[in-house]
Amino acid sequence: MPVFSLPNKYGIGSFGDEAYRFVDFLAATGQSYWQVLPLSPTSYGDSPYQSPSAFAGNPYFIDLDLLRMDGLITDEECRAERTEDKSIDYAKLYGRRFGVLEKAFGRFWKPRSYAHFEEDNRDWLLPYAEFMARKRANGGKAWNEWKEKASNVQADGEFWVFLQYEFYLQWNALKSYANARGVKIIGDMPIYVAYDSADVWNSPQYFLLDEKGMPKEVAGVPPDAFSCDGQLWGNPLYDWDEMKKDGFAWWKKRFGAALDMYDLVRIDHFRGFSDYYAIPFGETTARNGRWKSAPGKELFAELKKEFPDANIIAEDLGVIDERVRDLLMQTGFPGMKIAQFGFSEDNSGYNPENYPQNCVAYTGTHDNPTTKTWAKNLNAAEKARFHKSVRRHIGETDSIALIRSLLCSAAETVIIPMQDYLSLGEEGRVNTPSTLGRNWVWRVKQNYKRHGKQIKRLCALR
Asked: Edge-to-edge, what's the strand order for the sheet holding 33-35?
């Protein structure tokens, strides 16, 4: 089940009681994996794929009740943060949450574990803390617009270290609880980082920037059947020649952190390690980009030496050619199969009837419509192929029939979005690519537990 925001009275899912109850629900319904979106801090557009750090955790997930139990905030301060919002209001969180977290920081006494955490993570933690302190001192502006030197940066930097300590303390406890109940966590590693990030600010040599510190080219994908202008992501591109010089040290640190944080790691946009799409900086669409070669084989050979037992899933979607297939074969990583793609005339490789064992199968991802919405919008030819391949049992919806076909397929692992288990329509969509607005805000309702028997019955098919 991929990530969503759990029901929580403080406006976003956190690492508190409801998360533990959800783990119990996963275990009781026969789930082995819980896949989550990047847990990194969000910034412009609220996307977890545009984060000020490739290593930090999102402070919004820190559970206030756990801070209250530790004596860091009061009952009244907790009550003041409660909300009845049915979806995530990031503007409200940005405006309010750091205030109560600063109160907790003001009452915090450093235990021995704090010093260990700071020492173990200092390579990324201290630059991140300084970056966030300077960013706040400069009114939240991007680092290339900073003017204030921020004389109080050290004191404010301690606050950002505290937030990361609390985030990882709570996250590691939740992960241990899940693992003890037979549930492993699949994390998500975005291929790129945001330009306005501690990573680019602290290590500009690893990115394709000009003498003024501005990107020369930016990331995206070309026009396709889903977007006539392509997708202009805007992330700075890596200077792969520079990264080779120290044996891909930055990537080794990043993979090491991700593998410590999760049981398995899904690499987003895997094809970008074979060839990446480069768009001239300043373009307003992705139409005028070009493909360039990346040293994926060299990178993953080094990572295999460093992390021989790493459990990796490759998101091999998009424009896939022989070079990408060759890289996937060399690594041995399982790729992804998206069932919603499998019923057009030229996409039979995504039909559940044709899955290899070494893959991870999904009805759809966070970028797709829910299966209920997708099935409703099939054209006549696609609908005929779907009903010929996926025969519905009496009383089944198209969503449940497709879930059943995946669970009965040869795929070694199957991940079903919670929205599809709940047979939700457009109201359950998480993200519509290349749009800004109502993305990343969906929250599951408390009544998800009433679907437990059906989910357990379906999972028994595995």
From this structure: 33-35, 184-189, 264-267, 312-314
